[in-house]
């Protein structure tokens, strides 16, 4: 069995670093369940974010898949490089994943499979960073805070529905797979965790004229989620333009579907192209 505690530069066992969101998985049943969910094959191209002490990495590497890992912590990256020395299918990148460009891995279209027990402090920025390249990604299996996943899967009329769910569901199918208790980690996080699978749409079911406008409309609407749309969207539409929107503006932001938001955002794109300075 391989040593699980990498030494630090001073020769001591690795101390979990809070600033890097380090909660290491030790529960073998949970690890195996995640690995079975990912179900990697030798011809897969995997990207693991935050491999840490290799709880998932060892078993991912055993699949024979090509595996690139991005780890920010220098001590852990050094340990991982040593651990996978001689395995030509595994590459360790000591880098901030938010600065890592997945195109450098040259994946085939819809080929890359991304996995990771994400550092919770940066989990949503990481996902939106990757979604800039959604056409390269086949699927993503992540461990996140349960509360974040509840927001990701929520639909209209749910109190968890909002910007995160809408923008993710625009790009992906989102599935909450199973929960993981905090006892599965060392140190224990204060929150319950869960596994989510995000599968970027191969054919986008809805296409906004300008996804940046969709983002603007959704953000503006949910900035004042308790107001009616007539009020919350005021910063974006004149009274005249508001009256032309093909939605019921006496509803609240949480009552509109993603398709409704795309219609509103296309109206905003239209207005902006008619009046690019305004
Ligand atoms: N995969 C391991 C496990 O399941 O036990 C570790 C998971 S731990 C929650 C998150 C990992 O992400 C840590 O190893 C941490 O050092 C790494 N990390 C934190 N911020 C990062 C960043 N910006 N880029 C890449 N890795 C990061």
Describe the protein:
The chain has 278 residues and is of the alpha/beta class. It is built from ten helices and nine strands. The strands form two sheets. Strands 4-3-2-5-6-9-7 form a seven-stranded mixed sheet, sandwiched between helices. A two-stranded antiparallel sheet has the order 1-8. Mean pLDDT is 94; it is low at 8-12. Bound molecules: S-adenosylmethionine. S-adenosylmethionine (SAM) is lined by residues 20-25, 49-53, 55-56, 70-73, 76, 96-98, 117, 119, 122.
Brief sketch in words of this structure:
Helices cover 33% and strands 19% of the residues. It has 278 residues and is of the alpha/beta class.
CATH topology name of the largest domain: Rossmann fold
- How would the global form be characterised? elongated
**Helicity, as a percent range:** 25-40%
CATH architecture of the largest domain: 3-Layer(aba) Sandwich
How much of the sequence is in beta strands?
15-25%
The DSSP helix count reads 10
Q: What bound compounds does this protein have?
A: S-adenosylmethionine
Q: What's the β-strand tally?
A: 9
N to C succession of SSEs: EHEHEHEEHEHHEEEHHHH
CATH superfamily of the largest domain: Vaccinia Virus protein VP39
Within the largest sheet, what's the order of strands? Answer: 4-3-2-5-6-9-7
- Domain count: the total is 2
The CATH class designation of the largest domain is Alpha Beta
- The gyration radius over C-alpha positions equals 21 Å
The overall pLDDT average reads 94
Which structural category fits the helices and strands? alpha/beta
Q: Describe the biggest sheet? A: 7 strands, mixed
Q: Report the span from N to C terminus.
A: 65 Å
């Amino acid at each position: 069995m391989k040593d699980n505690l990498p030494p630090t530069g001073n020769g001591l066992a690795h101390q979990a670093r809070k600033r890097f969101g380090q909660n290491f998985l030790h529960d073998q049943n949970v690890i195996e369940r995640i690995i079975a969910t990912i179900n990697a094959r030798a011809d897969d191209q995997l990207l693991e974010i935050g491999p840490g002490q290799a709880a998932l990495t060892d078993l991912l590497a055993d699949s024979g898949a090509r595996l690139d890992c991005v780890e920010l912590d220098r001590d852990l990256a050094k340990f991982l490089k040593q651990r996978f020395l001689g395995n030509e299918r595994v590459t360790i990148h000591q880098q901030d994943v938010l600065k890592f460009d997945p195109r450098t891995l040259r994946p085939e279209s819809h080929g890359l499979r991304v996995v990771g027990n994400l550092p919770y402090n940066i989990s949503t920025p990481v996902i939106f960073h990757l979604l800039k390249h959604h056409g390269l990604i086949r699927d993503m299996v992540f461990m996140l805070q349960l509360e974040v996943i509840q927001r990701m899967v929520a639909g209209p009329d749910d109190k968890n529905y909002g910007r995160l769910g809408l923008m993710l569901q625009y790009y992906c199918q989102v599935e909450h797979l199973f929960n993981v208790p905090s006892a599965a980690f060392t140190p224990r996080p204060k929150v319950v965790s869960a596994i989510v699978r995000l599968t970027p749409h191969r054919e986008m079911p809805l296409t906004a004229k300008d996804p940046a406008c969709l983002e603007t409309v959704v953000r503006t609407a949910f900035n004042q989620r308790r107001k009616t749309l007539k009020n919350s969207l005021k910063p974006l539409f004149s009274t005249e333009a508001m009256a032309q929107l093909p939605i019921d503006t006496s509803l609240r932001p949480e009552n509109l579907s993603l398709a409704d938001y795309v219609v509103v955002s296309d109206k905003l794109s239209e207005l902006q192209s008619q009046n690019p300075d305004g």
